[in-house]
Design brief:
Layout lengths: L4 E5 L2 E4 L5 H14 L3 H4 L14 H11 L1
Length: 67
């Protein structure tokens, strides 16, 4: 089921587009309906507005090269 998310790490996913609260609620509701096993597997389902995304690994590695 492709809903416009990319896997980040662990169980974390990030939306590829900006979503409204309504859109997020709709997507989660559809996931729970379409994936009958999902509610039994989820302990928490957090939604966070992460704003700008920075790859700190690249930044740190670049700085290490300057040392």
């Amino acid at each position: 089921m492709d809903r416009g998310f990319v896997h980040r790490q662990g169980s974390g996913y990030r939306s590829t587009v900006k979503l409204s609260d309504f859109e997020i609620t709709l997507i989660v509701s559809l996931m729970y309906k379409e994936l009958a096993w999902l509610p039994d597997c989820v302990r928490t389902l957090d939604v966070t507005n992460i704003g700008q995304d920075y790859d700190m690994d690249s930044i740190a590695r670049e700085k290490l090269g300057d040392v």
